[in-house]
Amino acid sequence: MEFQTRISGTFVMNMTFILLAFCMAAYGAVYPILSPSYFHYLYMVWLIIGFTRLIVYRKYFNFVAGRKTILVVNGSFIYDLANDIKYNWDDINSVYEDNAYLYINLLDPDVYLAAIKNPFKRLKEKLTGESFRINIDMVNINADVLLEILEEYSDEAIEIEKSRK
Question: Taking the complete model, does pTM exceed 0.85, yes or no?
Answer without folding.
Answer: no
